[in-house]
Amino acid sequence: MTVVNGKTFTAAPPQDEFPNSVFGAIIGSLNGFERLERLSKLEFLDLEYNRFNNKSIVSSIGHLSSLKSLNLAYTGLESVTNIQGLSSLQNLVFLDLSLNNFSDSIISFLRIFPSLKSLNLAGNRLKSGIQGLSGLENLEFLDLSFNNFNKSIKPFLRIFPSLKSLNLAGNRLESGIQGLSKLSNLEFLDLSFNDIGNSTLSSIGDLSSLKELHLDGCGLRGTFDIQKLDALGNLKVLSLGGNRITKVVDSRDIKIIRNLSSLFLDDSNGDGRSSIQLELLGAYPFLKILSLKHNSFKAGIFAQGLCELKHLQKLDMSYNDLSGTLPLCLANLTSLQLLDLSFNYFIGNISLSPLGSLTSMHTLQLSSNLFRIPISLLPFFNHSKLKHLNCHENEIYADIDVPTLTPKFQLRTLDLSGQGHGGVFPKFFYYQHKLEYVDMSNIKMKGEFPHWLIRNNTKLYTLHLPNCSLSGPLQLPIHSHVYFSDLDISDNHFNGSIPTEIGVCFPSLNFLNLSGNGLTGSIP
């Protein structure tokens, strides 16, 4: 995370934040790389994910004295010797050396960059010596995740009083962390994937400026008393996934609940079998994102205040044990933009469900349930914002009477694969012009190959229609479609020959399955 020109970024700032910038994508040695030295006004240079055979290349960068942002992530660097040529870059504000192979010796070297505000050393071999960064008084964003600091980092956190963002995820930290309380300006903290346990909550509780807290997979067990974080009145995002929490204790009267906008409790079953107990979901009045996936929740979760979250925009309840029909109170969640109910045991006809009222949705995931879904998609015709619909592995059926209506949606991706008899090829497809991915596998339909579907959707790249009972000759669109790359029409009843112009029509085709048909003649 970094700040450039008054804007905050969690990774390298985008190119347009620097009028003079270069992005690199080079493998091997760079003959003529020294020509970069002529770019005397260059401020932004991104060379991440390159593998330099000649490490002396980096020394050429040292002549770019105007550089403010340098990204050398995952470039095969492994020692101070490789980057000594950077010592003249005294204007550096952003430096990313993550996913390399540096050891502790790199830390004291970095003190030569006094203007640094953002430093990313994630994914190296660091173990100790963090006190060597004490001279970087302007440092606001520090990422030390996925190293091996263990206990060695704890006493030295206080040397960074200006820090706004600290990522210590994936180290081998244990128990409480000393020095955190001194970071009074901290707004982002990630302690995920350590084994610090419940005792850490007391050391976090004084960080009154904190806006985002990640404690995923960090050994939290038993009852999680959210009131211990009550001093975090500015907290917006709380992520507690991958722990063994059995119960979340909360109250409508505490500050943290009133301001929280995102709550993640993924994979948090207390004993791996029974679901986590949530007392007052309705007590989070401004919650916009709620993720409860991969737990063992049953239908009772809806009675715990879930339907009271009228500001909710994203709800993920996938991979649970939810069953029965969808509760009608879901219609209250009119702000929902993304809803994921996949991999549960819901039943019922979608036409009679509250989903028809949720017209703000752009993404709806219903895969691997027991819903009955009309192939016309009539219940969603008023969903003008709907872009992605996944109904894989449900029962698709043909509507008896479908009124002549034009759907308001323009889908990008559609998956209706699974089982069912859909009657004639769905008419709503005639009104779609922005499709990119379509899968109707194993849905029995009447009709010929829908070449017009490819013609009308110029960015379509995947079309799967295997085992759909389609028949007739294989007619292709007239014009070339350069995005189209994946076609499966196996196990149908197509006849005649393979069109000779198939290579011209689909020049980017890399997957083609025509098996199980009645095609004759030669292969073009």
TrEMBL record:
Coiled coil: none
SUPFAM superfamilies xref list: L domain-like, RNI-like
Protein name: Uncharacterized protein
Claim: S-adenosyl-L-methionine is one of the keywords in the record: no
Gene3D superfamilies hit by this protein: Ribonuclease Inhibitor
Keyword Ion transport belongs to the record: no
UniProt keyword list: Leucine-rich repeat, Repeat
Entry's Gene Ontology cellular component terms: endomembrane system; plasma membrane
